[in-house]
Amino acid sequence: MNVIESNGLGKRYGANWALRECSLAIPDGHVVALVGPNGAGKTTLLNLTVGLTTQTAGVVTVLGGLAAGSRGALDGIAFVAQDTPLYRNLSAADMLHVTRNLNRHFDDRYARARLAELGIALDRKAGKLSGGQQAQLALTLALARRPELLVLDEPMAMLDPLARHDFMATVMTAVADHGVSVVLSSHVLAELERVADYLVLMSGGSVQVAGEVEQLLASHRVLTGPASEAAAYTERLNVVYARRGEAQAHLLVRTDGMTDQAPPGWEVHPVSLEELTLAYMRDPGAAALPGPARAALAQPMEATN
Amino acid sequence: MSTLTLPARAEHDASLRRLPWQRMAWITWRQHRLTLAGVVALLGVAAAYLLITGLQMHDAYAAVAACRPHSDICGQAATNFLDTYAPGVGWVLGLMQVIPALIGAFACAPVLARELETGTYRYAWTQGFGRARWTIAKLVPLALAVTIAAGAFSVLVAWYVQPIFAAGDNNGPLYPTLFDLLGIALAAWTLTAFAIGVLAGVLIRRVIPAIFATLAGWAGLAFVTGLFLRPHYAAPVVTSSADIPAQAWLINQGWFRGGTPASLDMINSTLARVDVRALTPELFQPGPATPASLGDPGQYLIQHGFTQLTTYQPAGRFWPFQLIEGSWLLALSVVLIAATVWVVRRRAA
User: Fold this and answer.
1) Which end of chain B has fewer CB within 10 Å, C or N?
2) Are residues B209 and B340 in the same domain?
3) What is the least distance, in Å, from the CA of A116 to any CA of chain B?
């Protein structure tokens, strides 16, 4: 089942396309990092996915073919929006009550146990909680709904490092315990690198890279060699990004499973996810979609696993 | 995992029962109880004032009503009563015109505008309940609550002004600042202000501008209604008789000669013969040469070819007018609230 699937998806605000020709197929069972610079269209894509916005072009389905925003989709997807909006004048207990009433499923025991662990007093008003606690409360409410898919839009933008760590720990516990699929957006990859096993990189309103992290890492290499020879290789190889010093050049190359044999005088290194992401982000035009996304798109309705 | 096809998932979607409406009852109450308390407080303070001053006024009128036999002395007592109380009542009821606007702007406009302004709609609209039903479940009980509160208040207003009518005040129940507060009009206007408020809130998406838009929208509608619509709910009575029924709503009164409206100059040129100046078509000022036998200058004008035409609505049309105004305000409110729900459904966040 694909938790999110889109084809030719586009969203226009006035004259500007916030999202354009977005085609994706994200299989379930992953923790997906949705990464891209500010204004890349991440929030627009997520808003379309959770049904807050309707598209201008194309289609988007969720949870294996449900229309985004339909009853089943609302039921199966929990969304924590940017800045984790909560009713500030309601207590944590009231927020639990509201969320329980608004949903078919709500695991009250889980929610209360989580809040107790986090030291969030039930009678405390949401507006009086710290930024980290507000984010944790919003996340707890979302997870207590027992969603199939948890969508988090820039959940950690306002949090300090410790709160980020705690937040991600809650997410990863839910992944381990309940098998929820997760899509997290961020403009900082570093905070997702340890947890994400699927990467969607967006820029300028479209998807630039999409695929499982392992496959992406396996299909890219960094070549280091004499700067004078770099130009010749740039033509022959699928170079994503080239950085040339006076003596040495670093080329990030998409090998797509080709052999790791380096030309004489060149060294081959594996690439880190951060290097890879930064390389694509630096050159939004050059990147082709890596294999996985294309393969999935060819047969959009087929379950991937 | 087997391949899931679209139709299967669509069936799954349809098989999910909608969550029952009553799930929203507690939420609406919890989120808006302070708002409702504010409405009750506003009406409560106004009601307390009406009750205290009204009891006093009823006492004073009881003495007038007990005056026997009907004579000049009793007539004078009634006039004294009106001179004492009617101006104050006029002021109080004039101020109370803004009650629907205050409720609509300060209590109702923020209901959705605050969700949109603070971003909590992104929480509320992504829960399983569904945003259109969430909106309906919020708006309908709130609309009922403010409408019923306003309706109850207008019963008190009717009791309050009753001695003024009974003492024979010139202004009847159709008088603009009275009509709005009596019968079903206050409830209907409050409902309309509510509907204007929630629609403004969802369109403007910010609390303070939505409050001002609601005040402006209500004021414009009330102005247009009082000036251009209400006088025409039924064809007004036009008469040349000076004998206008008691407590009729005078819409227009003017001098005519030869079937056309007479200007002040025409009136003055006729009255100059008896040295009377007309300051307005109704207000005459005698001069030193005015004959003592002249009497009413109006009669003099009538004797000299002028006609005074009065356009009015008889007081007996109060209830038909209430029903007409109540009906179209109700219809307008339903349309505005439906539009609000539609905007929520369609709104691209």
Assistant:
1) N
2) yes
3) 22
Same domain for B203 and B188: yes
Same domain membership, residue B269 and residue B162 = no
Distance between CA atoms of residues A34 and B303, nearest Å:
92
B35 with B64, same domain? yes
Q: Residue B70 is part of which domain span?
A: 25-231+318-346
Helix or strand holding residue A80 (H, E)? strand A77-80
Could you state, in order of their start, the residue ranges of all structural domains in chain A?
A: 2-212, 220-289
- Residue B155, domain member (yes or no): yes
Single-letter amino acid code for the residue at A187: H
The two structure tokens encoding residue B240:
């040349």
Asked if the structure places residue B249 within a domain, the reply is: yes
Q: What is the pTM of this model?
A: 0.88
Shared-domain flag, residues B85 and B135: yes
Query: Is residue B3 within 8 Å of A302, Cβ to Cβ?
Result: yes
Total domain count, chain B? 2
| C-beta separation of B112 from B69 below 8 A | no
d(CA A110, CA A118): 12
- Please name the member of A64, A85, A104 whose beta carbon is closest to the beta carbon of B128: A104
Residues B88 and B180 in one domain: yes
Ordered per-residue pLDDT tens for chain B, 349 residues: 344 444 446 566 667 888 999 999 999 999 999 999 999 999 999 999 999 999 999 999 999 988 877 778 888 898 999 999 999 999 999 999 999 999 999 999 999 999 999 999 999 999 999 999 999 999 999 999 999 999 999 999 999 999 999 988 888 899 988 999 999 999 999 999 999 999 999 999 999 999 999 999 999 999 999 999 999 999 999 998 878 888 899 888 888 888 788 888 888 888 888 888 888 877 888 888 888 777 788 888 888 888 888 999 999 999 999 999 999 999 999 999 999 999 999 875 5
Q: Are strands A2-13 and A57-62 parallel, antiparallel or unpaired?
A: antiparallel
For A2-212, give the CATH class. Answer: alpha beta
Give, for A240, the enclosing helix (H) or strand (E). strand A239-244
Note whether A179 contacts B: Cβ–Cβ < 8 A: no
Q: Are residues B172 and B281 in the same domain?
A: no
**Is B3 inside any structural domain?**
no
CB-CB under 8 Å, B124 with A66: no
Interface check for B118 against chain A (CB to CB < 8 A): the answer is: yes
Is position B247 within any domain?
Answer: yes
